[in-house]
Here is the input.
Amino acid sequence: MKTILRLVTLAVLPTGWLPAQPAAPVVTPAEEAGFESIFDGQTLAGWDGDPRYWRVEDGCLVGEITPETILKRNTFIIWRGGQPRDFELKLEYRISDRGNSGINYRSTQLTDAAWSLRGYQADLDGPDRYTGLNYEERGRTFLASRGQLVRLTPGQKPAILGSLGEPDALKAIVRVGDWNEYHLVIRGNTLIHILNGRTMSVVIDDDPAHARLDGVIGVQVHVGPPMKVEYRNIRLKTF
Here is the structure.
C-alpha cells in the first residue's frame, strides 16, 4: 500500500488528501526529462493502422470516420515500437463534438479483426461523458469513472477507495473542442489518468487473472457517427 500511495502522490492526490491542485501547471524542462517522441508529426513511421481511417495532417495523427467509411467495429492505430510495462505517456488531443476515442495501453492485439485491441483505455469523447475514466476494451468494461480511486479484486465489483473530486468539477477541466493534454502514469498494478494537470481516475488492479503488466499502445476511432480526432506531441518515458 505504501508503494501505491507514493504513485498516487506523484500524480497529484485526491482533493482532501493534499492541498488543492493547480488547474494548469506550468510545464518545465525537468518535467519532460526522460520523455521521447514516438510520433514524428510528418509520417506514420512506427505506427500501424487502417489507412482508410488514419493519416498525418498539420503535424497531427488524425483519425477520421466519414459517411463513406462508417465502422462496424472499433479500430486502432498501433504503435509498433514496443510493449511498455512501467511508463508515463503524454500527448495532446482534440476531438469533434460527436467523436469517441481512447488511448489503449498494456493491450493485446486480437486476431478476429484487423487492428483490434483488448486492454486498458484512457477514454475521451466529444460529448465529454467519458473523458478521463478507465475502460477495459473487450474486457471488464468500466473500471473507474471520472473522480474515482478504485481497487479491482477477483470476482468482485470495483471497490471505490476514495474520491478524486466531484465529477462535475472534473468535467469542467476538459476543454471542449480545444486541445487537451493527457498524462498517463502506469506503474505496477496502479494506473493513473491525468488530464490538464488534474487526476481523473486511479485504478489499482489486484485481479491477477485479468490484469496486464505490459502490452501495446494504440489510439482509437469508435463506431458511431462521422467523427474526427487529432493527436499530437506524443511522448513516452519508460522505466
Notes: The longest strand covers residues 227-238. The domain at 2-13+36-238 is CATH 2.60.120.560 (Jelly Rolls).
